[in-house]
Design a protein that fits this description.
It is globular and about 55 Å long. It is of the alpha/beta class. The protein has one domain: 3 Solenoid (Pectate Lyase C-like). The N terminus is likely disordered. Bound molecules: calcium ion (2 copies). One calcium ion (CA) binds next to loops.
Length: 461
């Protein structure tokens, strides 16, 4: 019976996802009449021009609050760009990566093909050795800070200082800074590799239809007291959202590309982790909607709030996540501090002995998790879908689970968690989300809809 519901809903959601508020959208920039084959003399299809100017639909999550999110919708024709390499991307964002963060001019940027963050000024692709400080080498670093030699103390001294200078070099190269009032849209097949989109102070920004892969860190830091045996930590997310309001991240795919964690070596007895988050929302950012994305085969996905300090993050970090696919990812789906975070109609496919947890309930967090569907491998337990990072309460309603070898069934996430763990989490996060652009699907309908619609290259570009 619910198949009929799915069919009808899929049509409704397809329309919503692809042409949602088209009627209320200003016409694509004039002067470029569509030709018979649907392209304009600028090489962009009518649909691409329309999608580039599409604002976040009314009521669609926290980013729709108040003034809503329009990105670069007000761009003049001169501020509509098609970019195919790193230099063109930086030019479109304002011309200088060191100052682009302050460029609030409305702009629409279409990405064509592959843009590699490691592309040097002459277009050749740099490697890690090109970015390393002359005083840094990994073999020397490993020899110096091996716990057998150095003890379990944080690295310090000339080699650590050289590593930090190397990180500064890499940040200038692979961290692409985005300013306010920006829309970045991928054309079919567009991919951003080896780079971080840094949305720091980037109010009113939209990122859609892009595949992000392998935002690798050339110079991971050894953290000897992180966990029982120490850990390697990296600092480059695929997208970082900081000190920004009204951000819409929609229909993207996040992977590690051809450089998965499983291919990394072990150093000092621990996996050499060159990747950080897919989409971290930190440093007082708020009013973010994350919809119809795919997060595939990665470790850390989404950190909302990076510090337990009760300070400027209080009352911020408001994020909505809906119709996303979390597929073979290991932790932070999301992990939340402080924020009122609405997690509804997402599909989780979780398996593998590296799996840690899905939703992290952190300090003063207020997560509402409703009508999500969890497909679990044999090595993932229902009581490990939540994790207590110092929180006290979480609302979970209408979620379903299909455990390996079992039928799909409703699941009480917080009840299952409390039955297996102490202290218990209270079953009420204390608020009721209102910014949901319906229909809210029953959980059993979620896998089919998310499977059909989430991720890059599902929009008609
Ligand atoms: Ca991060
Ligand atoms: Ca208990």
């Amino acid at each position: 019976m619910w198949k009929q519901t799915v069919g009808a809903t899929m049509i409704a959601v397809t329309l919503a996802a692809t042409s949602g508020s088209a009627a209320a959208t200003p016409a694509p920039d004039g002067g470029t009449a569509a030709t018979a084959d649907g392209t304009t003399d600028g090489g962009l299809s009518w649909a691409a021009r329309l999608l580039g100017r599409q604002p976040l639909p009314a009521g669609d999550g926290w980013a729709a609050e108040g003034t809503g999110t329009t990105g670069g919708a007000a761009a003049t024709p001169e501020q509509v760009h098609v970019v195919a390499n790193r230099a063109e991307l930086v030019a479109a964002l304002g011309g200088d990566n060191a100052t682009n963060r302050g460029n609030a001019t409305p702009k629409i940027i279409y990405v064509r093909g592959v843009v590699d963050g490691f592309e040097g000024p002459d277009g050749t692709v740099l490697d890690c050795s090109d970015l390393a400080d002359p005083e840094y080498s990994l073999p020397a670093y490993l020899a110096a800070y091996d716990p057998a030699v150095w003890g379990r103390l944080a690295p310090s001294g000339p080699l650590e200082a050289a590593r930090v200078r190397s990180v500064t070099n890499q940040t200038r190269q692979t961290q692409i800074n985005v300013g306010p009032n920006t829309t970045i849209v991928g054309l079919r097949g567009a991919r951003l590799t080896g780079l971080t989109l840094m949305l720091d102070g980037a109010h009113n920004t939209i990122v859609r239809n892009l595949t992000f892969d392998d935002a690798r860190d050339c110079f991971p830091a050894w953290s000897p007291t992180d966990g029982a045996a120490g850990n390697w930590n990296s600092q480059y997310d695929q997208i970082s959202v900081r000190r920004s309001e009204h951000v819409w991240i929609d229909h993207n795919t996040f992977t590690d590309g051809d450089n998965p964690d499983s291919s990394q070596p072990v150093h000092l007895g621990r996996p050499y982790q060159v990747h950080d988050g897919s989409l971290d929302v930190t440093h007082t950012a708020s009013l973010v909607t994350v919809s119809y994305n795919r997060f595939v085969g990665r470790d850390k996905v989404m950190l909302i709030g990076s510090s337990n300090t009760v300070g400027p993050d209080v009352g911020r970090l408001k994020v909505s996540l809906h119709h996303n696919l979390f597929d073979g990812v290991l932790q932070r789906l999301p992990r939340v501090r402080f924020g009122q975070v609405d997690v509804w109609n997402n599909h989780y496919r979780l398996a593998g002995d590296g799996f840690e947890y899905a939703i992290g309930v952190g300090v003063q967090s207020a997560v509402v998790a409703e009508h999500n569907f969890f497909n679990l491998g044999a090595d993932v337990a229902v009581d490990d879908l939540l994790y207590d990072w110092g929180g006290t309460a979480v609302t979970t309603r209408g979620n379903w689970v299909r455990a390996a070898g079992d039928r799909a069934r409703p699941v009480d996430l917080v009840g299952a968690y409390n039955a297996a763990h102490e202290p218990d989490l209270a079953p009420d996060a204390g608020w009721t989300p209102t910014l949901r652009r319906g229909p809210v699907l029953p959980a059993p309908a979620v896998p089919a809809v998310v499977g059909a619609l989430a991720g890059a290259d599902r929009l008609p570009l």
